């Protein structure tokens, strides 16, 4: 009767204890706190025993401390760190074999002798040890739960059910703690990755407006995590010019129209600095059919700024290229115009002096006046040539006689060539068909090739500075122009570098001319290339088709096309 | 009859060759024009020339080349350089190398007269 009451009381206490343990697990108590409570509950239920929990380390090779509230610390420290095998002790053995190990009397125990485990336990006053493995739901051994007595003892079925019950609770507590650690680690990885890639993420259940942001997204928007997110707060960071666009996006998302979207917009910080962000969002529906938008926001400010800088540099290059070829021309133009001007002034002076003589030399004055007019016309011709070369600013497509276009370029640059003592030999094909293209652009390429060739020969003194400019028909209805110099040439392996922007063999040049020239020729569907000569120097050539697809069949040009070519289009 | 001093013009530009000798004659000089340094050197006038009006940039032998050649031949003739290419460094450089004057095309008759005065005052 007495025992019955004791048993009932004990069962009620046990039930209450177990309930409290499960509450601790659910309430997120620390693993060591829960394991200690497990030990204490068992110790108070089965009187005279001492309990411990050891854990198997993540590598599965060593024992780690779990809980042992009533055992001497020196005993526990001599167990911790032991290898998980059958020889180092009962808990190590139980963990290793995943089997219960019962040692009812340590004085007659012969196992674990290699590690002298029994003498150590006996020295701490322990006589019996029952160790039971703690397994995860997946069957992996997490550790061992041990019960010690200071007298020889064998477990009863009551003991066994107690053990079974509490190793189960211990297993839940350990597994939960381990998965929480793993989760925390994974979250830390994610946060680090978001920080490194400057990518924040959000989830937005469209119906409720309860927006969740990752830490990095707060950092990108420069908002305080502690302040609750509101639409108003978010909009305060969006660039005023982009707000209508974002509002429209959000409205469409709310209306369920937009399931997936990707966009780029600007943020404006309180210090008025601007950030560019790229957002990718994906809409999903939960089990209840409610739309949730999840997405990533990447801060692409640096990329955008470098793209803008690159664009600016590119247009500067183009400007430099234009100015460079203009600069070379200016000297030539100045010379061309100054020569006739010089004649005009000298003739006019002479004329005045002849008229002022006594008697006036009227015939001589008339002759010098005539020369003045002729020189005036010469200057005017130069201006007319310049007009044809520079007046057309837009890219135009027209029928171009490459021979004539080249002659004009030669006329304009002849002084520059002469100054470099270049002997120019034109070799123009008589039957050269016209090409379609932009006359001014093609002339700029020809000018660039001529000036390059002239410059390549500026240091040549042991041979004539001969420059051959040749036009001819090429295969496949192409027309070719070649500029051959007797200059310093180039290394065969360096050919492609010649066409890189800024590559130059000249000390004073920008070296951008060839890359721009090549892009002009490519826009004419042709190609520009360089080849070393058999003798000294190099030959730069381009070959362009007589017509290409971007040209519409303008009636005025139709006559110059052969029917076969027109049909092939 | 008083022998007029000979001024020779060497320039590849035709309008200079046509106009300048007439003006020089108006100034009271005898004048000859040559289209290149080589043509001048091959002529009979080198020894008689009292002043050279010499273009700097010419195909073949340049003005300064001719100046050096004359120095080598010990036939030093006062030189007035003329050029359509000049920048601010041209004139000091030419004067340093022994020219009497360096004029930029187009130049006025008074500028030319000033240069010739300098030549003949020295002589």
Which terms summarize this structure?
heterodimer, A: Beta-Lactamase, Helix Hairpins, 4 domains, 5-stranded antiparallel beta sheet, B: 123 residues, alpha/beta, 5 helices
How would you portray this structure in words?
The complex is a heterodimer of chains A (569) and B (123). With 569 residues, chain A is an alpha+beta fold. Chain A folds into 4 domains: 2-182, GAF domain (Beta-Lactamase), CATH 3.30.450.40; 198-299, PAS domain (Beta-Lactamase, 2-Layer Sandwich); 309-390, Helix Hairpins (Orthogonal Bundle); 398-568, 2-Layer Sandwich (Heat Shock Protein 90), CATH 3.30.565. In chain A, 47% of the residues lie in helices and 20% in strands. Chain A is built from 16 helices and 17 strands. Chain A has helices at residues 2-26, 31-45, 73-79, 90-97, 117-123, 157-197, 215-221, 231-235, 243-254, 301-356, 362-390, 402-419, 439-456, 513-523, 555-558, 563-568; strands at residues 49-56, 63-67, 101-103, 128-135, 141-149, 199-205, 212-213, 260-268, 274-285, 291-299, 398-400, 423-427, 435-437, 466-474, 478-484, 527-532, 538-545. Chain A has a 5-stranded antiparallel sheet with strand order 2-1-5-4-3. Chain A has a 5-stranded antiparallel sheet with strand order 7-6-10-9-8, sandwiched between helices. In chain A, strand 4 and strand 5 (141-149) form a beta hairpin. In chain A, helix 1 runs parallel beside helix 6 (157-197), helix 10 runs antiparallel to helix 11 and helix 13 (439-456) packs antiparallel against helix 14 (513-523). Chain A starts with a helix and ends with a helix. The relative contact order of chain A is 0.05. Chain B is α/β, with parallel strands linked by helices. Chain B has a single domain, classed as 3-Layer(aba) Sandwich (Rossmann fold). In chain B, 41% of the residues lie in helices and 21% in strands. Chain B is built from 5 helices and 5 strands; from the N terminus they run E-H-E-H-E-H-E-H-E-H. Chain B has helices at residues 14-27, 37-42, 63-72, 90-96, 109-122, and strands at 6-10, 30-34, 49-55, 79-83, 101-104. Chain B has a 5-stranded parallel sheet with strand order 2-1-3-4-5, with helices on both faces. In chain B, helix 1 (14-27) links the parallel strand 1 (6-10) and strand 2. Chain B is globular, with a radius of gyration of 13 Å. Chains A and B meet through helix 10, helix 11 and helix 12 of A and helix 1 of B.
């Amino acid at each position: 009767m007495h025992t019955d009451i004791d048993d009932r009381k004990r069962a009620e206490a046990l039930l209450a204890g177990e309930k409290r343990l499960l509450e601790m697990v659910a309430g997120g108590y620390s693993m060591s706190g829960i394991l200690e409570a497990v030990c204490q509950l068992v110790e108070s239920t089965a009187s005279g025993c001492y309990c411990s929990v050891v854990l198997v380390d993540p590598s599965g090779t060593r024992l780690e401390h779990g809980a042992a509230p009533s055992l001497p610390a020196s005993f526990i420290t001599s167990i911790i760190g032991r290898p998980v095998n059958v020889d180092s002790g009962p808990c190590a053995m139980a963990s290793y074999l995943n089997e219960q190990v019962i040692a009812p009397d340590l004085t007659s125990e012969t196992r674990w002798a290699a590690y002298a485990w029994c003498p150590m336990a006996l020295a701490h006053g322990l006589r019996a040890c029952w160790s039971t493995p703690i397994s995860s739901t997946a069957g992996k051994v997490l550790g061992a739960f041990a019960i010690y007595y200071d007298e020889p003892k064998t477990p009863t079925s009551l003991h066994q059910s107690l053990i079974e019950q509490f190793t189960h609770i211990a297993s839940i507590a350990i597994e939960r703690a381990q998965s929480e650690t793993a989760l925390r680690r994974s979250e830390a990885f994610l946060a680090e990755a978001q920080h490194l890639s400057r990518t924040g993420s959000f989830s937005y259940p469209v119906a409720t407006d309860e927006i969740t942001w990752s830490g990095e997204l707060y950092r990108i928007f420069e908002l305080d995590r502690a302040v609750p997110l509101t639409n108003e707060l978010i909009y305060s960071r969006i660039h005023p010019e982009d707000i209508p666009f974002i509002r429209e996006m959000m409205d469409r998302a709310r209306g369920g129209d937009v399931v997936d979207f990707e966009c780029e917009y600007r943020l404006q910080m309180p210090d008025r600095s601007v950030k560019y962000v790229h957002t990718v969002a994906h809409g999903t529906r939960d089990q209840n059919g409610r739309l949730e938008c999840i997405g990533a926001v990447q801060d692409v400010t640096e990329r955008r700024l470098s793209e803008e800088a690159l664009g600016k540099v590119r247009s500067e290059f183009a400007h430099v290229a234009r100015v460079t070829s203009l600069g070379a021309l200016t000297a030539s133009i100045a010379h061309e115009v100054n020569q006739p001007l010089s004649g005009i002034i000298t003739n006019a002076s002479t004329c005045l002096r002849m008229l002022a003589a006594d008697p006036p030399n009227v015939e001589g004055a008339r002759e010098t006046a005539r020369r003045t007019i002729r020189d005036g016309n010469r200057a005017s011709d130069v201006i007319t040539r310049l007009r044809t070369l520079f007046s057309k600013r837009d890219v135009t497509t027209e029928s171009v006689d490459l021979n004539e276009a080249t002659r004009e370029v030669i006329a304009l640059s002849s002084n520059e060539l002469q100054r470099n003592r270049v002997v120019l030999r034109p070799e123009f094909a008589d039957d050269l068909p016209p090409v379609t293209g932009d006359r001014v652009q093609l002339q700029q390429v020809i000018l660039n090739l001529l000036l390059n060739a002239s410059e390549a020969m500026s240091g040549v003194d042991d041979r004539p500075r001969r420059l051959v400019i040749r036009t001819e028909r090429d295969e496949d209805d192409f027309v070719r122009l070649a500029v051959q110099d007797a200059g310093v040439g180039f290394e065969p392996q360096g050919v492609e570098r010649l066409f890189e922007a800024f590559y130059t063999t000249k000390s004073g040049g920008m070296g951008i001319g060839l890359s721009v020239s090549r892009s002009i020729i490519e826009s004419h569907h042709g190609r520009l290339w360089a080849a070393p000569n058999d003798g000294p120097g190099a030959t730069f050539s381009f070959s362009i088709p007589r017509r290409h697809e971007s040209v519409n069949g303008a009636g005025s040009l139709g006559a110059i096309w052969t029917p076969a070519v027109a049909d092939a289009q | 009859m008083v022998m007029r001093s000979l001024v020779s013009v060497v320039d590849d530009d035709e309008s200079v060759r046509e106009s300048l000798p007439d003006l020089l004659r108006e100034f009271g000089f005898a004048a000859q024009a040559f289209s290149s340094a080589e043509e001048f050197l091959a002529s009979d006038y080198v020894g008689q020339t009292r002043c050279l009006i010499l273009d700097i940039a010419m195909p073949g032998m340049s003005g300064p080349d001719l100046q050096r050649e004359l120095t080598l031949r010990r036939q030093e003739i006062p030189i007035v350089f003329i050029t359509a290419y000049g920048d601010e460094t041209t004139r000091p450089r030419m004067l340093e190398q022994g020219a009497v004057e360096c004029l930029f095309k187009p130049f006025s008759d008074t500028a030319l007269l000033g240069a010739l005065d300098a030549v003949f005052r020295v002589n």
